[in-house]
Hints:
The complex is a heterodimer of chains A (about 500) and B (about 325).
Chain A: H1 2-19, E1 24-29, H2 44-50, E2 59-61, E3 67-69, E4 72-77, E5 83-88, H3 101-112, E6 127-134, E7 137-142, H4 149-152, E8 179-185, E9 189-194, E10 207-212, H5 216-224, E11 230-232, H6 240-244, E12 249-264, H7 274-283, H8 286-294, E13 299-300, H9 323-332, E14 339-345, H10 349-363, E15 367-373, H11 376-385, E16 391-396, H12 417-427, H13 432-448, E17 453-465, E18 468-469, E19 486-487
Parallel strand pairs in A: 1-10, 1-11, 14-15, 14-16
Antiparallel strand pairs in A: 2-3, 4-5, 5-7, 6-7, 8-9, 9-10, 11-17, 12-16, 12-17, 13-17, 18-19
Helix pairs in contact in A: 7-9, 8-10, 12-13
Chain B: H1 2-29, H2 34-39, H3 45-54, H4 61-73, H5 87-122, H6 127-141, H7 144-158, H8 173-207, H9 210-217, H10 222-251, H11 254-259, H12 265-274, H13 278-306, H14 308-316
Protein name (chain B): Peptide/nickel transport system permease protein
Keywords (chain B): Cell membrane, Membrane, Transmembrane, Transmembrane helix, Transport
Family (chain B): Belongs to the binding-protein-dependent transport system permease family.
Amino acid sequence: MTFSRLIVAAFALSASAAAAQQTDLTIALQLEPPHLDPTSAAAGAIDSVLYANVFEGLTRFDQTGAVQPALAQSWEISDDGLTYTFTLAEATFHDGTSFDAEDVKFSLDRARADDSVNAQKPLFEAIETVEVVDARTVRLTLSKPEGNLLFNLAWGDAVIVAPESIETIKSAPVGTGPFRFADWRQGDSITLTAFDDYWGKAPALTEATFKFISDPTAAFAAVMAQDVDAFAGFPAPENLPIFEADPRFQVLVGSTEGETILAMNNGEAPFDNPKVRAAVAHAIDRQAVIDGAMYGYGTPIGTHFAPHNPDYLDLTNLSAFDPEQAKALLAEAGYPDGFETTLKLPPPSYARRGGEIIASQLRAVGIETQITNLEWAQWLEEVFRGKDFGLTIVSHTEPMDISIYARPDYYFQYGAPELVAVFDALGATSDPAERTTLLQDAQRMIAEDHVNAYLFQLAFPTVADARLEGLWQNQPTQATDLTAVRWTQ
Amino acid sequence: MWFYLARRLLSLGVSLIAASAVIFLVVEIAPGDPAAYMLGINAQPETLAALRTELSLDLPAPARYWHWITGMLGGDFGTSYTYRTPVADMVADRLTVSLPLAVMALVLAVAVALPAGLFAASRRGKPGDVAVMGAAQLGVAVPNFWFAMLLVLGFAITWRIFPSGGFPGWDQPLQALRALTLPTIALALPQAAILARVLRSSLIDALHEDYIRTARAKGLTPGQALRRHGLRNALIPVLTLMGLQFSFLLAGAIIIEQVFYLPGLGRLIFQSISQRDLITVESVTMLLVFAVIVVNFLTDVAYAVADPRLRRQGRRA
Lengths: 489, 317
């Protein structure tokens, strides 16, 4: 009796607290950043906390993945495509120092330097010099035309950092964004507070706490108990229907840049034979993998390109599920009785759960796989660097990363000369129509040649309090942009 | 007594040196390059080389072992590859969660086990004994993470009395205690069950000894004889067990820390292993080995205090 009264009291308390306009937010993510310098690690978790919140680049991605002006408010491109002149915003760093062209030069030169540890150094490859014209103007000169430059500068790895605080950036990052770094309780949470002198539109939130909950069961409990207001990248898709049915919550299922593929070792027999690759592609029932491994969340893809991109071509029919055709192709390729190969799986559930399903689908056409589960560090060493694998499942989460197919030394070892030519042409043009044609050519080439088996685009589920709005539904880059997030009641 | 302690101290030192060599070797043998893990799949070879130099990973293994060992002797446990903060600071930070959690869990375990064990032993074979030992059997059998999930379901989701997890820090002491309540219970009860069972059988053994009969003969009630003479003699196996349990609770709470997303020592090790943060794995493991050995040493000392016969044995040898 007293117990139930206590519960009622607890509910009443939380209800009255909600009546006042709330301006703080507790949002959970699965992975904690190792440190807080987005320009010296590949960990997407760093961008998930800091991108667009604490750090800004010259350009930025919006929620649809389109490139928008950020610290560079406008720019001019010379006719030969080799000179970019940026006009900069009047911004201030969180430590009070002013932002100017010198900071841009410092940041870009640091990323390009010989001893740079920038995980995405190739983004800056085309840049020849960075010149300070005056405090508000900076000029980039390229060694070759780079149609992707504005896109490249929008990455989290290309954000502008403050030279004055570079020594402590890993533990106390200083940027120009709408939120400043306040506190990091390692292993638990990172707190950001609104930056009063932000140059752009002030955010609605005054404080945001990122909590890190890696265990799917704990994630479910934290959201259900309303200990967190939102969970971006909710790790237990099997529980989403429960939240969908509960009026306290909203569920957003967005798309990501994560093309999930069954990669084949094109450099080794039997996968150097296009017929074998085609057989593998036709042996796979994508929908069964999506339903079985991802509880139905995920969009089937037929090439290495994000379906939400306007240049996407639906090529799934080039590798439709057809076990009979797969068997015929295997026989044609000289493997009437199939063959045996390895299937190496990194830790994420798309790979571990998807791997079991794919193994049984391949077995049905005569391909026996030996499954090995690997930790990420092992996967990088054995599969990615050592190229010691037959098949592997991995999600490529970098935006617009189809160009990896032009690199013959990349782990699946494709790099056909015709495709390389397409990418050379792509780099040399910034004409949108021409770029679309070339990107679609590339998509078709790798799909027709069945370089890898393309499975699905990784979905990005967010569970949030029903009264929240402005959260990113999609993940065009790894980010949790809080600038537009607010409570509606 | 002093000879006994000196012998224990010597074996403590030898164990530490052996442990450091084993830890270093095992971690070195494990495949996976820390730099490659940190820079991901688009990293270029020269970027990897630059990072390896920055982390001193380009030095040969014996040089790194020497550097590590001599650093630790001077109190420097190295700098984490991934977090880029001194390992000692991280451990100190994590201990503010793990140490109170382990102590609270052990205290709760003893507080439950002591009366339960005494009660069961004094009513041996009667319904009370059967009931308590049945409950203990259940406590031993139930996996603690499952029990933890039940606690969360009841107290965090349904009744919302305690948070489902996380740790707000000791600057909010009440909230911190609230956050550690469910994990403490989840950790303590299975340990209490084990302790109670051991205490009961140890007490029952003691009850058959001559001194109990003597105590009864001089007029003590069965309960008085049990508490004054039986308990003290039955404590040795219980102390051994508690020493082992404390080490387990300090480092082995990984699963409970995972269920309650607590920033404890167990999760630090777990993360470091998967991120190939070798120096952190090595140093934290070394510290834990040190803690276990010290706890064992203290347990040995506690024996000597609890049982004067052990002290005399030492002198004779």
